[in-house]
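Record type: ASSEMBLY
Status: queued
Input:
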Amino acid sequence: MNKGRVYIISGPSGTGKDTLMKKLFEKLPELAFSISSITRPIRSDEVPGEKYNFISHEQFEKMLAEDEFLEHNLYVGNYYGTPKTPVLKCIEKGQDILIEVDVNGAAQIREKMPDVVTIFILPPSLEELKRRLTSRGTDSPEVIEKRLNEALREIEGSVDYDFVVVNDKLEKAVDDFINILSVDKCKTELNLGLINKILNK
Amino acid sequence: MNKGRVYIISGPSGTGKDTLMKKLFEKLPELAFSISSITRPIRSDEVPGEKYNFISHEQFEKMLAEDEFLEHNLYVGNYYGTPKTPVLKCIEKGQDILIEVDVNGAAQIREKMPDVVTIFILPPSLEELKRRLTSRGTDSPEVIEKRLNEALREIEGSVDYDFVVVNDKLEKAVDDFINILSVDKCKTELNLGLINKILNK
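Status: finished
Output:
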């Protein structure tokens, strides 16, 4: 049995990454999702264990000392990280897993697991990115400006990814994403077992 | 406009490559096919300019002296080669092109065009390969044995390809092949223009 594969998805606010991921897991229910450990307080609309495990600062630092994170980050006093054990357990049993991280986290994971496949979600244009960031109508111009600058900084990092998926039409973007995962299985290095079997090696 | 992409398909007798290619061009009529130049006599069921251009030994050697082949081979006294100019013209105008060659030819092209995408068609098993090679019923055991050994020698070379497509169910294999071509377009290095445009660079 082949090991599972690790796929990384990144994409800033305004790229439609969350909606794309929702559709993705509807279409690929067998794909696992890596739950991040974070130390910030839980928000009213969040369910523990869904996207995040909420742990204490002390717990996080203990796990950090035990080298238990594939990547982590300290942001405005709170820790965010991807625990290693669940990811390794998942791929050991042959299940693929998706990790959602930012550009910085992706770079950290790539260093520890060089054969991860990294995919960045892009908006179709700068204008559309701006439109999506302003269309909620609830944020101040300052907040929107800040989000736009953060998004552009992340997009600068997209050049280090294996693939980009342009989220213009959602269904097309979801299909592109699923195709990337499917084609990954055709890589020759993942099929050496079959090749050797045919050759009786 | 992006340049067209060059895709290489290989797969020995018994992998079903020809049927797969037929289906492929039905589904992707915009994909170009590289016509080989060969010096052997035309067979009764062949149409000049369809799969091969039949040229003289002298013509071939003149083109060879002018470095006009991406790959070539001398086999039982006859030359076989992939002319360079039609491939370059095709990709310059943005059209993708498929080149059908053996493992040796693929290696030569990869050396000249390192960004080609190489795809090898595999049989699902050794047993199925043997079954397909014998099922025509017209060949002697010696000829079948020779074909099998040639096929296995080619399959040894499949490890140098980017992708393998297992031709178990034809429709699935065609879809896999088309997905490889489609996902190729999501490679980050082919989308730097869009990334830079979003970043106003």
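Annotation: Chain A has eight helices and nine strands.
Annotation: Chain A touches chain B at residues 119-120, 122-123, 125-126, 129, 152, 155-156, 158-166, 176, 179-180, 182-183, 186-188, 191-192, 194-195, 197-200 (CB under 8 Å).
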